[in-house]
Write a structure and sequence with these properties.
The protein is mainly beta. The protein contains 2 helices and 16 strands.
Length: 218
C-alpha cells in the first residue's frame, strides 16, 4: 500500500517505487517523514524521478527529512534516489533509521552536491543508523556546507560532491578494504561494506560509487 502527502509523492512503476516532487523543496521550516515497511521475503526498490533541491525557507528555519524503514526476515530494500543538491542558504537535516531483521539485506545509496553551479553550498547534515537483528551494524553522519569540513583535507578537501553506499547482505563475503582516488571501500564489522566517495561533480561521484560497489562484490 502506498500513501503520500505534501511535497513528496510516491508512484509505483514496473521498475520500483519512485519519489516524485510535487512542490519546491524541502524548504526551510518543512518537516517531512517517509516510512518504509518491507515484509519478510519481499523486495522493495526505491528511486526518485529527479534530484532533491534543498532550499532556504521564506522565514528561515531548518528543513527536516526523517526516514524510518523496517525490513523483514529475508527481505531486501534497495534505496538509491537521485542526488540531493544543497542550494545556497539552505539548512537541512536528514536522519534515516533502518531496522533489518535477521537475513534481511540493504542497499542504501546517498549522493549530495554542494550547491548549484557557481554558488556556495548550503548546510546539510545527513545521518544513517542501521541495526541488524537488533544489533548496531552502522552509524554514520556527514555534514556539508561548513568551511571546517568542506575544505579540510581530512574530510571533503573542496570536493563538489560526496556520497556513500551502505551494502548489507549475509550472502556476500566481507570485501577487502581498498582505497583509490576519491574512493574508499571498507568492510563492516559484520557482513557488508561501506563505500564512500568524493568527486568534483555529480557525474564523477556516480562513477566512483558504481566502481566501489563492484569492488565490494555487489
Amino acid at each position: 500500500m502506498l500513501r503520500s502527502d505534501g511535497p513528496l509523492a510516491l508512484r509505483e512503476t514496473p521498475l520500483g517505487v519512485y519519489l516524485v516532487g510535487t512542490a519546491a523543496g524541502p524548504l526551510g521550516g518543512d518537516d517531512l517523514a517517509l516510512d518504509i515497511d518491507v515484509g519478510p521475503g519481499s523486495c522493495l526498490v526505491i528511486r526518485s524521478a529527479a534530484g532533491m533541491l534543498l532550499l532556504p525557507g521564506p522565514n528561515g528555519g531548518e528543513s527536516v527529512l526523517r526516514v524510518s524503514a523496517r525490513v523483514g526476515q529475508g527481505g531486501r530494500l534497495d534505496f538509491a534516489p537521485q542526488p540531493t543538491v544543497a542550494a545556497a542558504g539552505c539548512d537541512h537535516r536528514a536522519a534515516a533509521q533502518i531496522d533489518l531483521a535477521a537475513g534481511a539485506s540493504l542497499r542504501w545509496r546517498e549522493e549530495t552536491v554542494r550547491g548549484r553551479h557557481g554558488e556556495p553550498s548550503g548546510q546539510c547534515v545527513s545521518r544513517l543508523d542501521v541495526t541488524l537483528a537488533g544489533v548496531p551494524a552502522y552509524r554514520g553522519e556527514l555534514t556539508v556546507g561548513g568551511p571546517q569540513t568542506d575544505h579540510s583535507s581530512a574530510v571533503l578537501d573542496g570536493a563538489g560532491a560526496v556520497g556513500s553506499v551502505l551494502l548489507v547482505d549475509a550472502s556476500h563475503p566481507r570485501p577487502k578494504a581498498s582505497v583509490h582516488d576519491g574512493l574508499a571501500v571498507l568492510p563492516l564489522a559484520g557482513r557488508g561494506a561501506a563505500v564512500t566517495a568524493t568527486g568534483p561533480d555529480a557525474a564523477v561521484l556516480a562513477r566512483r560509487l558504481d566502481h566501489g560497489e563492484k569492488l565490494a562484490g555487489y
